[in-house]
Amino acid sequence: MSVEQDEMSIFEHLGELRKRIIYILIVFLAGLIIGLFLAKPIYDYLLQADTAKDFVLHAFSFWDAIGIYMKISMVVSLVISIPWIAYQLWAFVGPGLREQERKAALRYVPFVLILFLAGISFAYYIVFPMALSFTTAVTISMGLEETYGITQYFSFMFSLVIPLALLFELPLVVMFLTKIRILNPLRLRKMRKISYFVLVFIAVVITPPDFISDFLVTIPLLLLYEFSVFVSALIYRKQLAADEALEAKYRQPTDPTE
Question: Domain residues of the chain, as ranges?
Answer without folding.
Answer: 1-168, 169-248
